[in-house]
Amino acid sequence: RRPPFWAGGLVEGRGTPCCFWNFIEAQEKRLPCVVARSVPFVKNLSEVKTMAGRGRAWLRLALNEGALEEYLRDLVTDQRACKAWYEPWSLIRSEEEVSIFLA
Questions:
Q1: Which of 36, 64, 66, 89 is the most buried (most CB within 10 A)?
Q2: Contact indicator for 35, 74 with CB cutoff of 8 Å
Q3: What is the pLDDT of residue 103?
Q4: Contact yes or no for 22/14 (Cβ under 8 A)
């Protein structure tokens, strides 16, 4: 089974198992207000127990708000952060592929 696009290519070895939520949480302070507010909201969901679950909850929130494109675009604009968190071959690191995906 292939990982979803946001999980494929995450760099391992950050001390804890790496997942998409770790990447989102690390970007929280540099994200625009609307997107940044979603992070504490997801952190406070008591029924979500795992990091992978928080990543899925964040994606669902973005979908429910009709803002998935905006949320993902804001995450991938900092290519320096993407390079630190993702392997060179991952979709998130390719600006061209991301723009096609988000179009």
A1: 36
A2: yes
A3: 77
A4: yes
Residue with tokens 């997801």: 42
Structure tokens at 70: 């905006």
Taking CA 23 as the corner, what is the angle to CA 43 and CA 12, rounded to the nearest 5 degrees? Answer: 120
Q: Which two tokens stand for residue 5?
A: 């696009």
Tell me the C-alpha distance between 12 and 69, whole Å: 26
Model confidence, pTM? 0.77
Fill in the DSSP letter of residue 51. Answer: H
Quick count: other Cβ atoms within 10 Å of Cβ 36? 14
Q: How far apart are CA 86 and CA 36, in angstroms?
A: 21
pLDDT at 15 over 60: no
78 touches 27 (CB < 8 A):
yes
**Beta carbons of 92 and 76 less than 8 angstroms apart:** yes
CA-based end-to-end distance of the chain: 25
